[in-house]
Amino acid sequence: MMVSALGYVRLRMRDPSEWLRFGEEVLGFVGETADNGSVRLKMDAAPFRYLVEKGDEDRFLAAGWECGDQAQYEHCREALASAGALVGEGGDEDAEQRDVTQLAFAADPSGNAFEIYHGRTGGGGFASPIEGLEFLTDCMGMGHVVLPAQAFEATATFYRNLLGFGLSDELTLPPPAQDAPQQRLTFLHADNPRHHSLGLYNYPAPSGVGHVMAEVHSLDNVGFCLDRVKAAGHPIIATLGRHWNDGMVSFYLLAPGGIPMEVGYDGRQYPDWESFQPTRSSIADIWGHEYHFPS
Questions:
Q1: 185: domain CATH number?
Q2: Looking at the structure, do residues 43 and 165 belong to the same domain, yes or no?
Q3: DSSP codes, the chain
Q4: Number of domains observed in the structure of the chain
Q5: What pLDDT, in 10s, does the model give residues 57-104?
Q6: CA-to-CA distance for 190 and 5, rounded, in angstroms?
Q7: Do 163 and 44 belong together in one domain?
Q8: Mean pLDDT of 19-40
Q9: Is 171 found in the same domain as 90?
Q10: Residue range of the domain that includes 105
Q11: Is 165 within the bounds of a domain?
Q12: CB-based contact 46:66 (threshold 8 Å)
């Protein structure tokens, strides 16, 4: 295994200050604004988990995948270079912006940009502005991300063979509309106990991402967040429910810029992947999760 966890995500927003308010007041993150207008949001002791850059459009830019050490990073970088997927090497300014020792840029067969890195620098303590709120991170990273993958098979093979992800679950669902193809999702785990750090979906995503997930430490934290989302007027795109494959109790919302997010609790963990048998599922949810996507 080469990739250890989802370390951070990068977003581009016309008004990053919307994410600063949303992150602090709704999600319970701690934010800071840089001189260039970008916003960094903390949810644990890491220097940041969300980097929101100022730009002329609202969209998801890239996932930042953490490698456990320099040797794993070099192995991963060389594998990407050999496959022609390496786009470039991060310079000192890039590394400083992300508080990492070394990073490189790449893209998967479906065109999703991502970064690999090792050695987070800086950081420190974390205390949410919302009393009693904690996030489940540590060695498991910031959560998970689901990416659009219309080159579905090639993209799943790419992440497994080049970045060392393991298969957790393959989900097949009916088409969302007549004459549309079946919905397919592949869930992949990194080198940590979280059921999946990456999901791939065979349909496009207008914002560039299917969703980003943040996991909290209690069911009450999920409920309180749901109340804050409703009070702030953010659209709920899936009601409270429990997923079949990872057991997560969660809801989904549209964050500023149209970024779908999942806030959940009680996701399954697997400390020993050697004894795990990947699953094939045909239902997404045990209960709940009634979906309401805006036009």
A1: 3.10.180.10
A2: no
A3: --EEEEEEEEEEES-HHHHHHIIIIII--EEEE-TTS-EEEESSSSS-SEEEEE-SS-EEEEEEEEESSHHHHHHHHHHHHHTT-EEEE--HHHHHHHTEEEEEEEE-TT--EEEEEEEE--------SSTT--B--GGGTT-EEEEE-SSHHHHHHHHHHHH--EEEEEEEE--SSTTPPPEEEEEEE-SSSBS-SEEEESS--TTS-SEEEEEBS-HHHHHHHHHHHHHHTPPEEEEEEEESSS--EEEEEEEGGGEEEEEEE---B-S-GGG---EEES-SEEEE--B----
A4: 2
A5: 999 999 999 999 999 999 999 999 999 999 999 999 999 999 999 999
A6: 6
A7: no
A8: 97
A9: no
A10: 3-120
A11: yes
A12: no
Residue 35 Rama label (left phi>0; alpha psi -120 to 50; beta): alpha
Q: Which residues pair with 291 in a beta bridge?
A: 238
- Identify whether 129 is part of a domain: no
Among the three residues 94, 120, 146, which one is the final residue of a domain in this structure?
120
Q: Are residues 176 and 115 in the same domain?
A: no
Residues 13 and 64 in one domain: yes
288, 181, 199, 175: which is closest to 236 by C-alpha? 288
Question: Are 146 and 252 contained in the same domain?
Answer: yes
pLDDT for 123 equals 85
